[in-house]
Design brief:
The chain has twelve helices and seven strands. It is mainly alpha-helical. A hairpin with a 5-residue loop joins β1 and β2.
């Protein structure tokens, strides 16, 4: 019946990066830590490639500064003759660069392309994983709720007028749902009742846990869909009509039994089954008891539907707390670290994640509203405070400033003054802004990847320049060793 329950079914993504991340996650048992460790590994490996790229860039910058005076003279002399100017400039480039110019340009191009490929493929993979996680987390909560009300519906045998069974829910605070595995390994969900003494206190076992008795149990399902067959006779022939009842159809049928549907003109509450009249006082927004027009305190009744919903939502909230992917101040790592979005996605956002209403089964909004509205009241909050976006910008700027500092320090030590090209200056502005934009509008996991990458790069920058200096010193020493030594001696 999988085809009857494919509601918001998003396939788990696969690919190179996802496979590696899963391997790290298996070790760390935490997706964010997996991303952090993966980023560190990528950046350390990348630092080796980047070191040679930096060395090549510095070498070309030095050559550029050496030949600049000649280029200026050529430009002044042949400025009115573009063809001759181009020819003379090429001669200067060939004189100073030789073949190293094309080698250096090729290396920088390869490094840039590889960097972009890593960035965008990982970005795409994590976006796909975010979509899958949002969808699967929702479905996990949905089926948790659906199985709870299914157990209740089966307990009442779809007849909620049974007063003997209604009695159980008058003390719904003592009710709960648990999941256990049977001898065959199947998941069994049970409605339980905690045992209390005469004073209403919970009875604890030797380990300090609440003791309970099972009220009703069923197999935990992730597919409530089935084929309904109706047999009828027409013209002496037996005809079997088959109707597909989807998971949503089944859940909604239970919801309609638990929560009465009111038509136009019907007074809301008139169809509700009242368990206890004047159950508790009605409080205002300040927590003060509401006083009616007659000057008497106002009380509200306990409805059977309220007791069932509260018991089911208690279990759903526990599932949410146990499975929610959070990290530090971020409640939901699969959406942006932003105060403008909530940690629990709304229905429209959920649907847009899987490609629109065309991919959603009929009745999904009704099922969503049945439990997600209550979950939002209990657990939803702003998902962040732009902290990752701010840190991404600041660390990117700091990393670039640190890189410039070491470059200038090295050049000054060697007595060389090299001007930073305008394109490089613009990149120092554009890159941090782009990282900030990505962090603002995309999932927090990718923002953590960008932030970690910038931090690791900043830490490795001094080491890279130490390696570059060591390479240059070694080359200079070889050059000095090859120089002929002229000995001056006076013969007598």
């Amino acid at each position: 019946m999988a085809n009857l329950s494919a509601l918001l079914a998003v396939s788990e993504p696969s690919g190179f990066w996802i496979t590696i991340i899963k391997a790290f996650e298996a070790v760390t048992n935490n997706y964010v830590l997996a991303i952090i460790f993966l980023t560190v590994v990528i950046r350390v490996i990348w630092a080796i490639v980047d070191t040679f790229s930096k060395h090549s860039q510095q070498k070309m910058s030095i050559i550029q500064s050496q030949m600049q005076p000649e280029l200026d003279k050529i430009k002044a002399k042949y400025g009115n003759s573009p063809q001759q100017l181009n020819q003379k400039q090429n001669e200067v480039y060939k004189k100073y660069y030789g073949k190293s110019y094309y080698t250096g340009c090729l290396m920088m191009l390869v490094v840039m392309i590889l960097n972009l490929v890593i960035f965008f493929t990982l970005f795409s993979g994590l976006n796909a994983m975010a979509t899958y996680k949002i969808d699967s987390n929702y479905n996990n909560l949905k089926y948790s709720y659906a199985n709870c009300i299914n157990v209740v519906d089966d307990y009442f045998n779809s007849d909620y007028t049974d007063e003997s069974k209604q009695e159980l829910f008058k003390n719904y605070e003592n009710l709960a749902f648990i999941i256990e595995s049977d001898d065959e390994g199947k998941q069994i969900i049970s409605l339980i009742k905690y045992q209390t003494n005469g004073d209403g206190e919970f009875i604890l076992d030797e380990n300090g846990n609440k003791t309970f008795s099972k009220v009703h149990s069923l197999e935990y399902k992730t597919d409530f869909g089935y084929i309904l067959e109706e047999t009828k006779e027409e013209d002496g022939k037996i005809i079997v009509d088959k109707t597909a009842v989807t998971t949503n159809d089944y859940i909604i049928s239970i919801l309609n039994r638990i929560f009465p549907v009111y038509g136009e003109g019907e007074v809301e509450g008139s169809k509700e089954i009242i368990l206890i009249e004047d159950y508790k006082p009605v409080l205002d927004e300040n927590g003060q008891q509401v006083i009616g027009e007659d000057g008497q305190p106002v009380y509200e009744d306990l409805y059977l539907s309220t007791a069932i919903q509260s018991t089911a939502m208690s279990y759903v909230i526990d599932v949410y707390d146990q499975t929610q992917d959070s990290f530090l101040w971020i409640e939901n790592i699969w959406i942006a670290d932003s105060p403008t979005v909530k940690s629990i996605v709304d229905y429209d956002t959920l649907v847009s994640q899987i490609g629109g209403e065309g991919n959603v089964q009929e009745g999904e909004r009704q099922v969503y509203d049945a439990f997600m509205k209550d979950l939002k009241i209990e657990r939803s909050r702003v998902n962040g405070y732009y902290i990752l976006a701010i840190l991404c910008v600041l660390v990117a700027v700091a990393s670039m400033l640190l890189n410039n500092y070491f470059t200038k320090r090295r050049n000054k030590k060697q007595g060389k003054e090299i001007q930073t090209q305008k394109s490089a200056k613009w990149m120092q502005i554009i890159v941090p802004i782009l990282l900030g934009i990505f962090a603002l509008f995309y999932n927090s996991v990718f923002s953590i990847y960008m932030l970690t990458g910038q931090i690791v790069s900043a830490i490795l920058t001094p080491l890279q320049y130490l390696v570059i200096d060591a390479i240059n010193n070694r080359k200079n020493k070889k050059t000095d060793d090859k120089k002929p030594v002229v000995e001056y001696s006076r013969k007598f």
